[in-house]
Amino acid sequence: MSEPASEPIVLPAKADIDAAEKLTTDLRAFGTEPGLAVDASEVEKMSTPIILALVSALNTRAELSPPLTVINPSTPFVDAFTDIGLFQELMKMEFAS
């Protein structure tokens, strides 16, 4: 596993549309630098826009290994991908604790 190059982007407990806007801004600022990590340990509820922002980052960063590391994904974080049929996208991410 690669170590994140910087501090992880921390997702809030309620990862809603407002959090998706902030996440999108943070992901754009990170660009295609290696070492992108997202801390999903506090997620209790996650909206579809958050998932789509993460999938977009995966697609943009597909040539990197890993394209995205998720730190301590909560059960609701994982379930949200399954609920909308994007579990296969989740499996493209690396997981760390």
Structure description:
- The chain has one domain: Transcription Regulator spoIIAA (2-Layer Sandwich).
- The protein has four helices and six strands; from the N terminus they run E-E-H-E-E-H-E-H-H-E.
- With 97 residues, the protein is an alpha/beta fold.
- The strands form two sheets. It has a four-stranded parallel beta sheet, with no helix packed on it. It has a two-stranded parallel sheet with strand order 2-4.
What structural keywords apply?
alpha/beta; four-stranded parallel β-sheet; two-stranded parallel ribbon; 97 residues
Quick take:
Helices cover 41% and strands 15% of the residues. With 97 residues, the chain is α/β, with parallel strands linked by helices. The strands form 2 sheets. A 4-stranded parallel beta sheet has the order 1-3-5-6, with no helix packed on it. It has a two-stranded parallel ribbon with strand order 2-4.
CATH fold-level assignment: Transcription Regulator spoIIAA
Task: Classify the oligomer.
Answer: single chain
* Largest sheet report: 4 strands, parallel
Total helical segments = 4
CATH superfamily: STAS domain
Q: How helical, in percent, are the residues?
A: 40-55%
- For the largest sheet, list the strands in their spatial order: 1-3-5-6
The parts where pLDDT drops under 50 for at least 5 residues are none
Write the layout of secondary structure elements.
Layout: E1 9-10, E2 14-15, H1 17-30, E3 37-39, E4 45-46, H2 48-60, E5 69-71, H3 75-83, H4 87-90, E6 94-96
Parallel strand pairs: 1-3, 2-4, 3-5, 5-6
Helix pairs in contact: 1-2
